[in-house]
């Protein structure tokens, strides 16, 4: 895989170095996948954090960022309660 930096572009096109437009939040760095020429950006927030008062409200626009955002790893997983079946089946990784 090849790493590249993105630039703002309304057409949504990318070049062979993995550059793609930053969809309104700011520039980002992703990975160009060699199979099929796809560009992957992981860990990009879709909305502002819902912590506190807006917990059950409609999503709010993310404020964006300055500089180039590293977008090659996924973000944190949503917390989930432990399954009651884990006592019987054991813990399954993955």
From TrEMBL:
Residues 1-39, 71-94 are annotated as: Disordered. InterPro entries: AB_hydrolase_fold, CarbesteraseB. Residues 30-87 form the Carboxylesterase type B domain. Pfam families: COesterase. Residues 7-23 have a biased composition (Basic and acidic residues). This is Carboxylesterase family protein.
């Amino acid at each position: 895989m090849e790493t590249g930096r993105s630039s703002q572009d309304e057409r949504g096109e990318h070049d062979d170095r993995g550059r793609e437009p930053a969809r309104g939040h700011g520039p980002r760095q992703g990975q160009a996948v060699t199979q099929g020429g796809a560009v992957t950006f992981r860990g990009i927030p879709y909305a502002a954090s819902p912590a506190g008062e807006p917990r059950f409200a409609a999503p709010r626009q993310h404020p964006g960022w300055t500089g180039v955002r590293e977008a090659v790893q996924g973000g944190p997983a949503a917390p989930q309660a432990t399954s009651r079946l884990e006592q019987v089946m054991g813990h399954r990784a993955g």
